[in-house]
Amino acid sequence: MLRRCFQAALRFIPHWPALYQDVVSQQTVGKSLEIWQTAHWNTRGLSKMSLWPFSVKSRDFSQPNASWSAEMQDVYNRYNALCEAETEESGKTGTWRKLPSYNRTLKYVRGGVCLSKIIQSKSRLFTRNIKDLGAAFEYVVFLNQQEKRCVCVFQPGHLLEGPPGHVHGGAIATMIDTVTGTLAGYLAGPVMTANLNINYRSPVPLGSVVVLHSALDRVEGKKIFVSCRVTSTDESKLHTEATALFIAFKMGYLFGS
Ligand SMILES: CCCCCCCC(=O)SCCNC(=O)CCNC(=O)[C@H](O)C(C)(C)COP(=O)(O)OP(=O)(O)OC[C@H]1O[C@@H](n2cnc3c(N)ncnc32)[C@H](O)[C@@H]1OP(=O)(O)O
């Protein structure tokens, strides 16, 4: 039943193949980027089409909100200033780009808002499933596509406690997985985490602001190796170091084909 719905949706949505095809095995990383971004931009373009019957706009959860500390806002402003404003005509961006963050990754692709209502409609992205502002994962990811790296500003809230007053290691791992996975996804299309190695160097206080710096190490076929460092906002303190391996896959893998 689920599979039939999915296949029907694939037929219905004309540009779904941008995400569906195996971009890594057949194309270069540069081309993959283009396709993944095309899917991304198409989604944005889609929401501007007035005739489209499912033109529900997805909410971007990475916008500043009242729970953000002054430090969070400062770092956000710093990276946001590096993002060149996009014009309707050119659709171009600068070296850095703030990535939107929806509560379902499915909403990134063209027609995804519609698909998201068909497939497991109650599912929500783990890091975006708590409605209280600032209670858990407050974060924004910026992508530098030329340098193949991402930066994430992260303000962990009180629901992420591990050691008293400090962030749970699993919550830090979640953010590392999210940021490295986002980078790998932008470079290679759909990916799954195969391996995550983490060294915790110093605890992260709840409510503080840290920055995750993630960079592409190398690509070997469908294997994408990414590293990540979690530091204080001025980078004087190292909290965590990690390496991750992602494997590119065809979307059908998730749906049994
Ligand atoms: C916006 C938010 C972004 C969030 C990102 C979050 C991402 C996630 O959390 S994903 C969820 C957690 N991950 C999973 O559930 C994945 C479960 N594992 C799997 O499905 C599969 O093992 C999968 C897809 C990773 C790899 O399967 P498959 O495509 O069959 O790979 P396979 O052919 O066995 O191996 C391919 C290569 O990878 C290597 N490899 C696979 N797994 C590993 C591993 N764990 N460690 C090291 N190498 C590995 C293999 O050795 C092989 O190397 P080579 O080509 O050199 O021989």
UniProtKB/TrEMBL annotation:
InterPro entries: HotDog_dom_sf, THEM4/THEM5_acyl-CoA_thioest, Thioestr_dom
A GO CC annotation given for this chain: mitochondrial intermembrane space
Pfam families: 4HBT
Main subcellular location: membrane
Keyword GTP-binding: no
Membrane-topology descriptor: Peripheral membrane protein
Family: Belongs to the THEM4/THEM5 thioesterase family.
Protein name: Acyl-coenzyme A thioesterase THEM4
Organism: Silurus meridionalis (Southern catfish)
